[in-house]
Amino acid sequence: MKTIYLAAATLAAAPALADNHEDRTGWPESFTVGTASQGGTYFAYGSGWANLVAEELGLTGGGEVTGGPMQNMALVHTGDAAFGMTTMGPARESIDGTNPIAPGLQMTNACAMFPMYQTPFSVTALSSSGIESISDIPEGARIGFGPAGSTSDTYFPRMMEELGVDFERRNGGWSDLGGQLQDGLLDVIAFAAGVPVPAVSQLEVQTDVNIIEFTEEEQQKIMDAFPVSAFDITANTYSTLEEDARSVSMWNFAIANCDLPESFVNAVVDVVMSDNERMMNIHRAARSTLPENWDKNAGVLPWHPGAAKWFIENAGADIPDDQIHGN
């Protein structure tokens, strides 16, 4: 069953910002934003900006509980949801036609709208294991990759294979896998999640751990093979770290159905991107929801014309015409 959380506002009572967008030809009276399950960052962040947009533009809109990035690509592509949120990996797979929800369907009608935040990939082992680098991971190591079907479970095993690591794949909740590592049932845990990962922070309190960074060569190899960007886990993230740890991260982007009116999407982007402090009040992850991060799309998703217009005019974005939908 779909669960939709709506915020309603009348046009007459809409704030002044709505008056800046007088051309409302073709605008919908309501909209939904595909998020993920309740209790996660996607749901809180997505419902928050949906409600903000609804209030500012005098529309009815809200966040919808979904299965996450892959399903959001499908919902937005078909128009069942006006907006959604996805990570670059699922976005690329969906455009290539390998989204497991609809194999063979190239979901090219979901367009980039604005950058959200990063999901870093991090590796942890017990200090007693002697594993201090990726190359130290022994053959047949038992590695926990997080919940089955998650972004972590989808991409981290492939990354390890790319780096030549031989392993046994294990799945589970983050806290459960952290406990298994401490009990010696796992050799390594490899999570794609916001840092600090609570399970790793808890481990630090109870035992000595190694936060394992990638070498420059390993980092580049992963970036060449997957839709990820360079990322540093800062030294103040974990008490174990004495200096920044080299890693990679996968960007999350808000997406829009490509057929939505240019002026509508432009107005939505303006609401979200023009006041970062307001977004930070919705969720701390929004500290990366900044205009200069427009380039983190890296050509994976076609840009919605309304969004491209906003970033070109307000962020000096250099978006090639062939990366803008309809051009």
Give the CATH topology of the largest domain: D-Maltodextrin-Binding Protein, domain 2
- Following the backbone from N to C, one meets helices and strands in this order, namely EEHEHEHEEHEHEHEHEEHHH
Distance between the termini: 38 Å
Radius of gyration: 21 Å
Output mean pLDDT: 90
Organism: Palleronia sediminis
InterPro entries: TRAP_TAXI
Protein name: TAXI family TRAP transporter solute-binding subunit
Signal peptide: 1-18
3D architecture notes:
It is a single chain. With 327 residues, the protein is an alpha/beta fold. It folds into 2 domains: 4-118 and 252-323, 3-Layer(aba) Sandwich (D-Maltodextrin-Binding Protein, domain 2), CATH 3.40.190; 119-249, 3-Layer(aba) Sandwich (D-Maltodextrin-Binding Protein, domain 2), CATH 3.40.190.10. The chain is 32% helix and 22% strand. Strands 1, 2, 3, 4, 5, 6, 7, 8, 9, 10 and 11 form an 11-stranded mixed β-sheet that branches. Helix 1 crosses helix 8 (262-273), helix 5 packs parallel to helix 6 and helix 8 crosses helix 10 (305-315). The longest helix is centred in the first third of the chain and has 17 residues, at 41-57. The chain is elongated and about 65 Å long. The model is unreliable at 8-19 (pLDDT under 50). InterPro entries: TRAP_TAXI. It comes from Palleronia sediminis. Residues 1-18 form the signal peptide.
